[in-house]
Amino acid sequence: MNKMLKVVWLIILTCMLLVTGCSAPSVAQVGKSAPNFQLENLDGQPVSLSDFRGRPVLLNFWATWCPPCRGEMPYLQEVYEAWSGKGVVVLAINLGESPAQVKGFLETHNLSLPVLIDIPGDSAHQYNISSIPTSFFIDSDGIVREKVLGAFPSKETIETRLIEIMP
Fold it and tell me: Could you write out the three-class secondary structure of the chain?
């Protein structure tokens, strides 16, 4: 019986080590480091969040079929135009659509902000996206400072939050 107990304990300890050693990647949390990702832009070039370390970042998860997402796009474009020169990075991460669909949408709506494509939803999983639009404000140290669910009602609403993450 003593030998059987040792075997059971060995199995339990092995399972515990496997579970803790093979845990899933971390998800974005306010006050924690923003998970890094690598996605392609509309030209097929890889872009990583870590490329922008040292600069504040506004991440926006969206899709062309989402009415609230479409409604806030002009405000994100205005922020992109007004704040890029101040060092702010605006990245719109499109979920599940082809580059051709997204390019067509941007052209139709006269938008030029940077868009990354996440067809399989990997970054959406890392950022625990349950609804769109969802935005994250990340400071220049790479720390998530705020998560915003839903569409922004104005450019000013976005700017108020950007001021909080400026160095």
Answer: CHHHHHHHHHHHHHHHHHHHHCCCCCCCCCCCECCCCEEEECCCCEEEHHHHCCCCEEEEEECCCCHHHHHHHHHHHHHHHHHHHHCCEEEEEEECCCHHHHHHHHHHCCCCCCEEEECCCHHHHHCCCCCCCEEEEECCCCEEEEEEECCCCCHHHHHHHHHHHCC
- For the cut 50, the answer to whether the pLDDT of residue 18 exceeds it is no
Residue pair 28/127 in contact (Cβ under 8 Å)? The answer is yes
The overall average pLDDT reported for the chain is 88
Query: Could you report the per-residue pLDDT of 45-73, keeping only the tens digit for each?
Result: 999 999 999 999 999 999 999 999 999 99
For residue 75, give every residue at least 6 positions away whose Cβ sits within 8 Å of its Cβ, in sequence order, or none.
152, 154, 155, 157, 158
Q: Is 110 exposed, middle or buried (0-12, 13-18, 19+ CB in 10 A)?
A: exposed
C-beta of residue 12 within 8 angstroms of C-beta of residue 20? no
Is the distance from CB of 38 to CB of 48 less than 8 angstroms? yes
